[in-house]
Amino acid sequence: MTEPSIWTNPEGWKAIGAALAVGITAIATALVQREIGSAAIGAIIENEALFGKALILTVIPEAIVIFGLVVALIIA
Amino acid sequence: MSLMDTIERGWNGLKRGWNGLIGTRHIKGSRKGTANYSYLNARVKGMKGHLFPKETYPRLMNMEIDQIARYIQESSYKEDIDQLAQSYESADLVEHALNRNLAVSFTKLINISEDEPKYLITEYLRKFDVWNIKTILRGKHVGASSAEIKENLVSAGEYTYTFLSGLAGKESTDEVIEAFSESYYYQILKQFDGTNLSDIENMLDKMYYEHLYQSIYETRTKEFKLFLRFVQTEIDVRNLLTLFRTKKENLAEDEIMEMMIDNGNVFEMDDLKKLVSLSYEEFIDELKRYSLWDKISDCCSIEMSSLIAMETSLKKYSLTYARQFSHANPLSIATIMDYIITKNNEVNNLRIIVRGKSAGLSDEIIRNQLVI
Predict the structure, then answer these.
(1) Interface contact flag, B42 A40, Cβ < 8 Å
(2) What span, in angstroms and rounded, lies between the C-alpha atoms of B368 and B372?
(3) What ipTM was reported for this prediction?
(4) Is B365 within the bounds of a domain?
(5) Does any CB of chain B come closer than 8 Å to the CB of residue A39?
């Protein structure tokens, strides 16, 4: 019996699709959080009272990667 | 690139690399690199939030000098007033505190920035080095005391306060000039012969703007282009102010041209030559052809006896321009330049109020001088 090829196995393609969904959205989140995070740190240094707001704004882009994760779970 | 170009670039690089001199802060910015504008802008916006709103000035106008000192002590000037309260009092205390705060704020900008913005801010703040050199020379020339000179020093540029206040205590102008023998200001300062101080001051100013322009126009990135527009607008405003003052006094064409600064945006050198050659009435008529006329048309006429209103309008234009520019270009050098210009204006306004009150000027005169 021959080993099934990765190119013809639908499970393989699904796994690749799921990985891309999580991977690309994680990179997008990271890029956005870099900007927001550094601005948040700058704002907190000048005014400590902004910590709560800064934290919320910093985690908002997490939604992007969560959407990616959901898509990945649906695919897989 | 030819060999001569390479040598010239190397030489310019060496000239720029005079950071390692005694009395300087060893600032090293870079034209390249990844500048973190998000961080810098958030901090600068935070710092801008500590500036006085415009409603503060009418309140300050109704206070005595000691009350003003107490009022600003409750703001971002607290540390400065606290530290200097033992050495100075009244108007001197406020003046010293304002200068110290200005120096601390601008030095902070240099310290929190890196790479490209650090380079641009450092180049711009050399303005204060020129200001300090002029202050010390002028002070020594007219025989002012060391304390009087120190009162006007703002060590926001590359030279430290310790170095500059040491110079304020020197005996003669020659000793002061010798202290700058390693810097590129020396080529101008060595021409001082005891009688040509105003020429030296003009040359220093022109050299500052020439150097600033040279250090930014070659690099054609977005930030450098924005910064260049700021500098060119400042040159235009400065040239126009000089033109009004000199034309009003009927100075000779050659003398006026020597004060003109090249590389403006609205006024190129040919425009300036043309404007300088005209009589005062023709000069004002000719100005109507330029875009800057809109900013001063309300208060500018041939009959006007005082230039104060016109000067205030031009300064207001600089402030408005900086603010609009920073709104149009968030996360860029524009926000930082807006802060520098607004902070400088706040300190000037406070100084005008305090000095005006201590000199016994009427509220009306002081109010006209304020740029709000």
Answers:
(1) yes
(2) 10
(3) 0.81
(4) no
(5) yes
